[in-house]
Structures are given as C-alpha cells and as structure tokens.
Specification:
Largest sheet: 2 strands, antiparallel
Shape: elongated
Structural class: alpha+beta
Radius of gyration: 19 Å
Order of helices and strands: HEEHH
Helix content: 40-55%
C-alpha cells in the first residue's frame, strides 16, 4: 500500500511501483469507481471484468458461451 496526495486540481500520481506492477503506460485508460466506500482504480482491458463493470452485471462462462453460440447461429442464418 502506498500513500498519495490529492492536488488542488483533485489529481493523484500513481506511484512508480504500482505502475510497473500493473504495466500502466502513458495513454492507458483506467476505470475508477466506488465499492464499499473505497475508491477503486483498475487498468482497463478487454477482459470480462471490465465488461461486467460497464454493464453492471456479472456474467458467467455459461452466459458468455450461450451468447457466442446464439451469435454464431445468427451469423449462419444471415449468410445463407
């Protein structure tokens, strides 16, 4: 755990040890949200965790496989 200071513009600097550990680079996007009265900052990626957050719903592997199968069927019907 590291301590940071909020500037007068309400900005913080992500400590270099944290940036290195998460491979955060200039231009990367981060997700910021409140959970249980804590500020959570996550590196945005194309994984299911960020999808769950944006959609406000948890998806299981079964849900994802069903959606993929339905999309495949839809594509198969449209190309016939």
């Amino acid at each position: 755990m590291e301590e940071v200071k909020v500037t007068r513009n309400y900005q913080i600097t992500i400590p270099s040890t944290i940036r290195a550990k998460l491979n955060i680079r200039v231009g990367d996007k981060l997700l910021v949200y409140v959970e249980n009265n804590k500020i959570i900052i996550e590196k945005k990626s194309g994984n299911i965790t960020s999808l769950n957050l944006r959609l406000g719903r948890k998806f299981t592997d079964e849900d994802i496989n069903k959606i993929i199968a339905e999309a495949g069927e839809e594509i198969g019907r449209s190309s016939s």
